[in-house]
Design goal:
- This protein is mainly beta and about 500 residues long.
- It has three domains: about 260 residues, no CATH class; about 100 residues, Immunoglobulins (Immunoglobulin-like, Sandwich); about 110 residues, Immunoglobulins (Immunoglobulin-like).
- It contains three helices and 37 strands.
- The protein starts with a strand and ends with a strand.
């Protein structure tokens, strides 16, 4: 399983009946209810006035906010088009929207009041909506409220009203609907998913697999798509509240590691059984295709014919494309017809790359008894202790964002002279440290096993510049051994 992250290209928090722009704020404050007005609020509307100032209001009407954003899917689209992400192969690709709650780190603040008088919300539902055909500008505002008498608007650069805001998408173009979204009353908007929040400190984690796969497969255009997060219409339209309720999430302008993103997961695990193809077990055989050393997909799926030890056809099938330049077939040899060990042959045909037909490829694999796989007896199996080493990346190495490393995990048999083995059950994870907290960027995933080595790909193209750590974990007969910080490395920008 691999993980790829797509980040926001722009975002903004808009406030109902208000021209304020907060796009550059590192936090989106989603709120509803009575707004505790501390001063005149700028609306830009000629009919409003407050303290003699045209375009301001002092009303205490209920207000609410919405968060809008665009996703940059260019990289994931490129991976799909190149065959590196297979939307239908394996278990298919899944996509989850991830945003970190600002209340997550201090539970004592639950139900407490913020400095601006809003109370932290709990027991609510957020909607994720989508609209098409929208062009809008992010803006350069920061603050949610202007403070007249402290800074004049023209000198207070942290407060902005330039679009986008509740009324306008750009300087010259209004939204089709005020607030972007009409809360479900128009068919041009689609509610993609929703999430319930019990305490109010939960992170956003919304499965939007169908939505994104539809875009990646061409069912929905990839231009002009805008997403937004809003409270349900019931909460937005509540009246008579004596307080305002809010929840905060980090935006793309955060200076922390908690930048929001779309997490794409896809199954590209390689478990090649060529060196130990067990009788009466479903096994996989793999074929790897490259041009000048770079993984390259074939023009079409190859055909595979399996010949037994007597050169008779045992089976024929079509291979499955797992990821860039990686194909496999999955089958079992069953029964008592064949003795073990026996030599079988797998022949791969219909090999075409960029219109060029290639010769068939024939490989051998040895059918072995399943005694080492099915272990049945009066005694429990003891855990196997191995030694592990990492190659392909050095301790404290600096990687420029975008580099990809093939990291080899060597498994050594104890009390031997450099004797190594290939095993299953090895996992790795990647994380950063934020103070005393470990934040996983890539949770525990399987280390690939080919017929000759164990490895995983370290792809830094979606990693934020930071210091990262790699842990290794191995499982053997219920014993779990974890090797902490086997590698520490940094991702840095090109500049």
């Amino acid at each position: 399983m691999s993980i790829f992250k797509s980040y926001f290209s722009k975002n903004n928090t808009i406030v109902s009946k208000d021209t304020v722009n907060t796009a550059r704020n590192p936090i989106t404050e989603l709120f509803y209810g009575k707004e505790p007005i501390k001063s005149c609020k700028y609306t830009g509307l000629s009919g409003d006035s407050c303290g003699g100032r045209t375009g301001y209001t002092s009303d205490n009407m209920g207000r609410f906010s919405r968060f809008i954003f665009d996703l940059n899917l260019d990289d994931v689209i490129s991976k799909v088009n190149s065959g590196c992400i297979n939307l239908s192969g394996g278990t298919g690709a899944t996509h989850t929207l991830k945003m970190t709650n600002t209340s997550l780190f201090d539970k004592t603040l639950l139900n407490d009041k913020l400095i601006d008088g809003k109370r932290r919300a709990s027991s609510f539902t957020l909607l994720l909506f989508r609209s098409s055909g929208l062009t809008w500008d992010e803006g350069v505002g920061y603050d949610y409220q202007e403070y007249p008498g402290t800074f004049a608007p023209e000198f207070d650069e942290s407060y902005g009203t330039r679009p986008s805001n509740w009324y306008s998408a750009t300087t010259i173009n209004p939204w089709t609907y005020e607030g972007v979204y009409d809360n479900g009353n128009n068919a041009s908007f689609t509610v993609v998913n929703s999430q319930d929040f019990d305490q109010g400190d939960e992170n956003i984690s919304m499965d939007i697999t169908n939505e994104i796969n539809d875009r990646l497969s061409g069912g929905t255009p990839n231009t002009g798509i805008t997403y937004g997060i809003a409270f349900t219409g019931t909460l937005e339209n509540l009246t008579g509240l004596t307080e305002s309720y809010s929840v905060g999430f980090f935006t793309r302008h955060t200076q922390t590691f908690y930048e929001p993103y779309l997490e794409t997961r896809y199954d590209d695990y390689i478990g090649d059984d060529r060196e130990r193809f067990y009788l009466n077990k479903t096994n996989r055989l793999f074929l790897y295709t490259n041009t000048e050393g770079n993984p390259t997909n074939l023009d079409s799926l190859p055909q595979v014919t399996i010949y037994d030890c007597d050169d008779a056809v045992y089976s024929s099938m079509t291979a499955t494309n797992l990821t860039c330049g990686v194909y496999y077939v999955e089958f079992a040899v069953t029964g008592t017809t064949y003795g073990t060990p026996s030599i079988f042959t797998d022949t791969w045909s219909s090999l075409v790359i960029n219109g060029n037909s290639l010769d068939n490829v024939s490989n051998e694999f040895t059918l072995v008894a399943a005694d080492d796989y099915y272990q049945v007896g009066p005694e429990d199996q003891l855990p196997k202790d191995y030694g592990y080493s990492i190659d392909g990346i050095k301790m404290d190495e600096k990687l420029v964002a975008g580099e990809t490393r093939k990291v080899f995990v060597s498994v050594r048999v104890p009390y031997t002279v450099n004797q190594s083995v290939l095993i299953d059950g090895i996992k790795y994870r990647i994380y950063v440290r934020q103070g005393n907290t470990e934040v996983e960027t890539h949770p525990w995933e399987n280390v690939n096993r080919t017929y000759s080595h164990n490895y995983f790909l370290l792809n830094t193209e979606d990693m934020i510049p930071n210091e990262y750590f790699i842990d290794i974990k191995a499982t053997s007969n219920q014993q779990i051994d974890t090797y902490r910080k086997v590698i520490k490395f940094q991702v840095v920008n090109q500049l």
